[in-house]
């Protein structure tokens, strides 16, 4: 559950935006609803029904940015407040002199990588798509795409080829290297990881985490359990970073790091790295065991509590304050996504009733039949 941000916009402007959104979203939603059997087309990526062949309904790529326009906070907003699972108000304060004061827009790529198609595609092709049937992979990807739309970032879903000699998760370093030259930042999430607050922009997080220009790779630490310290540690008993959430920044050292990571299992630069072609944790173990030690200055490690795990994880307080990674209980991904979407939808409705902006509230001073 999130609190609406403090805004400097005028009340009339905010009301106009909210009212406009409600009308557009309502008519768009009604137009999207269909008879028992829908006709699907690929043209312009619109879903149409026979009753609306001559009516162009708003595209979801237009609706989502409008949906979040009154919720999204500014990149350098001094504070961010939210209500946690225990119904407690938490207020976070940006460090002084934030680096990012303007939106980065298309300089940011939100990236999904898979060797498989989304399970939801088959249902859609058969005209049988339903939210309740959506699995966690599609739910996570939809969260990432909607987040990109909400903030004007670029988005790509890359379907990569399978490796013949190593686990599929090894597609990450080469994909990062092939995309980063076109962007300032790549933000990658596994399908079982989500943005907890879809109205919180990446620029604010970069400021909050104090990510600097020389940081090439940013990842969160894994949980550390004193009862089983070897569980998520490398051979030096240092906690591994988790590759389920990665921020890649375009700087002079990035390509070298990604090349070293990608080639690690070849046992040329790092003898013994081929051990991690197949066994857990694949590319994550290789990065933690070898690569990060050659590039310490350019690797930034976030606390596990900030960008890993989910509510209920006690080790290292890994409860996913900003990024949630559901190693288990993956079905909860859909709940995070739906909570975010409903928060954005119901805020304008709350405002209408609280401020009576459309005259929907009428007083009945006497309970008599006139």
Automatic annotation (TrEMBL):
The chain crosses the membrane at residues 12-32. GO terms for cellular component: Golgi membrane. One of its GO terms (biological process) is protein N-linked glycosylation. Keywords: Glycosyltransferase, Membrane, Transferase, Transmembrane, Transmembrane helix. It comes from the Eukaryota. GO terms for molecular function: glycosyltransferase activity. Belongs to the glycosyltransferase 34 family. This is Uncharacterized protein.
